Amino acid sequence: MKELTAHIDGEFPAGQRLVLADGEVSATQWPMLAGRNIPALRVGDVLTRGGEPFARVESASWWTGNPSRRVWVLEALARLEPGEVALAHERRGRTLAWITLSDKGAAGLRADASGPLIEEMVRAVLPLGLARGFVLPDDERALRALIADLALVQGYDLVLTTGGTGVAPRDVTPEATLAVIEKRLPGFERAMTAASLTKTPFGAVSRAVAGTLGQSLVLNLPGSPKAVRECLEPLLPALAHTLDKLQGDPAECGGLA
Description:
The protein is of the alpha/beta class. The protein has two domains: 88 residues, M1 Pyruvate Kinase, Domain 3 (Beta Barrel), CATH 2.40.33; 153 residues, MoaB/Mog-like domain (Molybdenum Cofactor Biosythetic Enzyme, Chain A). Helix content is 26%, strand content 34%. The chain contains seven helices and 13 strands. It has a seven-stranded mixed barrel. A hairpin with a 2-residue loop joins strand 4 and strand 5. Helix 3 crosses helix 4 and helix 5 packs across helix 6. The mean pLDDT is 92.
């Protein structure tokens, strides 16, 4: 495990947001940690000092004006004191981002029930270190950009969308997903369709897409909570194994015991 060194300029309480960057940068809205030897951190990674939690990665981005330089926003998990600290990093649980596609939801005209249900169902089968939700209008470009950022920059394990999988004029979720994924998972898609058809013949209308981008699993789900439950339930037992294989687990793919 690669260790990094950071310099803390002040004393900060637990819960404080801080920016970690490689070396000095200009002022930001949060206090700065000037780091050295920074590894490829992903959202949800926990930085530890002497085995004790120090901070958690909340988000990642490229530094404005210098696209080759990464910066991370951290949440302090303990009281931080000034000085040099040597930090290790580790993964504690999986990370989930859910995206609800809804023009009315994005305008604040409809409460989102499907996104929180996704988190509830995934949390029941996977230990989650971090889960975060987003609500977007049915905009293909915005969705493409968000999926790519969550998978490739932030490093979420799971990126699940809800809504926009049908044939209405504003249903563009499959198009946005197909534009960015690298490997398609037709077995996941068939499992969702099969589950839907046991409930309604309208399940055949869904165009939901499943695939991978980087080390992230990307899944489209329908928009209603009822359909989310029906389609996600048969996939839950395969999530952990899929992520393990996607992220380089060399173990043999034997049958389930």
